[in-house]
């Protein structure tokens, strides 16, 4: 204890000395300026190296797709990947995406009396005269595709030239005839196949007491010696002149002038001309006048064709209520006609009445490819994908070349976890082609995703 006490006393006796310690003050101090160029250059070099490595690895993956294995994270992908969006796959709807009808055959028949050009179609077509010139005709077939090349025609007494040109809304068929040729078109159902026919034949001559008048061009010959009377011919509409017109008596007028009137004996000619005039009004965008004229022609001699043109007009003008009403009335009036029933079903589909579409075809056996596809699309919109797959397969069994139905089938197959089948459906659509950019991008995206999942 004495030693400790002595040490403590010694410490107390020493003089105290305080040495201050410098400490940086608390707070922000201005940082010294630094040169960032080396850091940015290093970062840029790193990004370039990373990009080069990624490109190299992608090339290796596509060169040897089987050698790459999925990481644990990617192996946990859900088997059925539902697409984020559904493409518009409504069959037969008049849009820029779907044209289901096709020209599937062309025949030219020639005889001593006439020449017939026959186009075989998958379904009935809305056809109208688009252009009319001297000895030239241009018909438009709405919502039709064609891969048929027009034959080269030479030294033919009926027709001089024929062209078949696709357009945004269908197919244009243009031809040049010889002089004095009557052109008739009609649409028939032969052995279950729709045939659109162009018939060419010579105008028949109409003999009178004073001369021979050709119905197409009422040019008069020189009067016989001794006749002594000038002739005046009334204006004649070639389309309104029937080939079987009876000889018209010559009427003597005051002043020694003879007038020849040529009138049609065909009661349908006037209505046919009015229908053609209505189509010309539509083409010249005088829609209101064309619509009023077509409505007046309903239930007349050209009722069936009038209804087709009026439905096309309502569709073009987006008059969905009128389209639905006219399609329903037309279906009831022509119960055995497939076209009007399909148009009515399509209008129900566009109005989101999917159950009504299903009920419409519930007792219909058999039904065509467009109707099968409408049924399938209705089930798809109701998320009943197993039924959608079945009806899309039935539709494709009748029309295997419909790329948009293959895409729709693939969508429903994904929802039923049939991923390999879905990938095959997308591949079929890609092989067929004729897809717009949006559908092509959709198919490519889904195909890539499915390959990743299946591998």
In short:
This protein has 455 residues and is α+β, with helices and mostly antiparallel strands. It has helices spanning 2-13, 37-63, 269-283, 287-297, 303-316, 320-333, 338-350, 354-360, 369-381, 385-398, 403-415, 419-432, 437-454, and strands at residues 101-110, 114-121, 126-133, 136-142, 144-146, 159-167, 170-177, 181-190, 193-202, 205-207, 212-214, 231-233, 251-252, 258-260.
Q: In words, what does this structure look like?
A:
Helices cover 41% and strands 19% of the residues. With 455 residues, the chain is α+β, with helices and mostly antiparallel strands. The chain folds into four domains: 101-202, Immunoglobulin-like (Sandwich); 205-260, no CATH class; 267-351, Tetratricopeptide repeat domain (Serine Threonine Protein Phosphatase 5, Tetratricopeptide repeat), CATH 1.25.40.10; 352-455, Serine Threonine Protein Phosphatase 5, Tetratricopeptide repeat. The chain has a five-stranded mixed sheet, with no helix packed on it. A four-stranded antiparallel sheet has the order 3-4-7-6. A three-stranded mixed sheet has the order 12-14-13, with no helix packed on it. Helix 6 (320-333) packs antiparallel against helix 7 and helix 11 (403-415) packs antiparallel against helix 12 (419-432). The longest helix has 27 residues, at 37-63. It is elongated, with a radius of gyration of 40 Å. The N and C termini lie far apart (88 Å).
């Amino acid at each position: 204890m004495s030693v400790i006490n002595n040490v403590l006393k010694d410490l107390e006796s020493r003089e105290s000395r305080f040495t201050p310690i410098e400490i940086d003050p608390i707070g922000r101090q201005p940082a010294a300026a630094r040169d960032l160029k080396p850091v940015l250059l290093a970062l840029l070099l790193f990004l370039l190296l990373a990009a080069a490595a990624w490109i190299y690895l992608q090339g290796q993956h596509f060169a040897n797709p089987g050698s790459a294995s999925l990481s644990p994270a990617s192996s946990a992908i859900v088997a059925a990947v539902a697409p984020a969006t559904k493409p518009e796959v409504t069959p037969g709807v008049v849009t820029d995406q779907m044209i289901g009808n096709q020209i599937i055959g062309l025949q030219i028949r020639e005889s001593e009396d006439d020449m017939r050009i026959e186009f075989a179609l998958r379904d009935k077509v809305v056809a109208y005269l688009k252009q009319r010139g001297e000895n030239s005709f241009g018909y438009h077939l709405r919502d039709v595709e064609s891969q048929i090349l027009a034959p080269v025609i030479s030294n033919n007494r009926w027709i001089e030239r024929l062209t078949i040109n696709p357009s945004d809304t269908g197919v244009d068929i243009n031809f040049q005839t010889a002089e004095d040729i009557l052109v008739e078109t009609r649409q028939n159902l032969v052995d279950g196949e729709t045939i659109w026919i162009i018939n060419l034949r010579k105008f028949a001559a109409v003999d009178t007491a004073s001369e021979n008048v050709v119905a197409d061009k009422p040019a008069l010959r020189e009067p016989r010696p001794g006749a002594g009377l000038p002739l005046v011919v009334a204006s004649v509409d070639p389309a309104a002149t029937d080939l079987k017109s009876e000889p018209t008596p010559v009427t003597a007028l005051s002043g020694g002038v003879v007038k020849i009137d040529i009138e049609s004996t065909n009661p349908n000619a006037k209505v046919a001309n009015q229908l053609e005039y209505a189509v010309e009004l539509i083409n010249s965008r005088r829609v209101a006048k064309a619509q009023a004229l077509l409505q007046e022609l309903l239930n007349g001699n050209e009722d069936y064709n009038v209804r087709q043109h009026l439905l096309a007009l309502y569709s073009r003008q987006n008059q969905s209520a009128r389209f639905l009403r006219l399609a329903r009335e037309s279906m009831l009036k022509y119960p055995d006609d497939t076209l009007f029933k399909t148009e009515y079903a399509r209008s129900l589909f566009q109005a989101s009445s999917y159950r009504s579409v299903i009920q419409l075809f519930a007792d219909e056996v058999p039904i065509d490819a467009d109707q099968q596809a409408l049924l399938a699309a209705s089930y798809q919109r109701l998320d009943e994908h197993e039924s959608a797959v079945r009806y899309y397969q039935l539709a494709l069994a009748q029309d295997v070349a419909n790329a948009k139905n293959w895409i729709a089938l693939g969508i429903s197959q994904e929802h039923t976890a049939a991923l390999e089948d879905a990938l095959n459906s997308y591949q079929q659509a890609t092989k067929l082609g004729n897809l717009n950019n949006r559908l092509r991008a959709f198919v490519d995206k889904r195909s890539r995703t499915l390959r990743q999942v299946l591998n």
